[in-house]
Each structure stands twice: as C-alpha cells, then as structure tokens.
Amino acid sequence: MLSPCLLELLRDYWFEARPARWLFPGKPKINPVSSRQLGRAFNSTKHLVGITRPATLHTLRHSFATHLLDANVDVRVIKVLLGHAKLSTTARYRHVATKTIRDTPSLFEALKKLNVQTRKYRRG
C-alpha cells in the first residue's frame, strides 16, 4: 500500500536528494538507514512534537494493524501486509481493536428483537 500522495513526496525527495544507492542512505552512505538510526529519528521527532507517552517504531506497526481492523479490513489482508506467516500472529491484534469490539452486535439484543417479533406474531 503506497498512497499516491506519499509516492509524490518520495519522488520529490528523490529528485532533490538524488541518493546514489539507497532511497534512505545510512551512515556510511553505502549502507541503508539502520533500524537503530530510524529509532533515534523516531524518538527525536516524538520529543520535538511533544509526545510524552512511551512509543516505539513497533507501536506504529501495532497501530497500523489496529486501525485496519477498526476499518473492517479482513484479517487475512492484514496478515499479508504485516508479513506474518501465521494468521494466529495477526489475530493477536484483535484484542485492541476497540471499534470492532464496540460495533459487534449484542446477541442479547438480537434475541430481544426476536422475542418482540414472536410476541407480535402470536398476537396477530
């Protein structure tokens, strides 16, 4: 999934920076940016914008999966997007998909409606 807007920004970056080997070179530039460098940049940005709650790059991955679940994206699609080998790994994200849980219809309400309809049928 690559947003057309993000693709445009990446193209602009590439046009300006003209990286030789990697789109995001690390230090030294012959290597790609490392996960440690990304973590430092994330923490620095978090501090810069005033986010004080604990968060890591994995928090972003977790949020991505949770938001997709909240948007009713099929868990099998999310599995592929996250690169999980097993569906059970992706299913762990379901425990925090609050919108999904909140929007799940109550079986009690369904029984209550059925009971009301049954009573109307019997009276009719």
UniProtKB/TrEMBL annotation:
Keywords: DNA integration, DNA recombination. Residues 1-106 form the Tyr recombinase domain. GO terms for molecular function: DNA binding. InterPro entries: DNA_brk_join_enz, Integrase-like_cat_sf, Integrase_catalytic, Tyrosine_recombinase_XerCD. GO terms for biological process: DNA integration; DNA recombination. Pfam families: Phage_integrase. Coiled coil: none annotated. This is Tyrosine recombinase XerD. It comes from Planktotalea frisia. The gene is xerD_2.
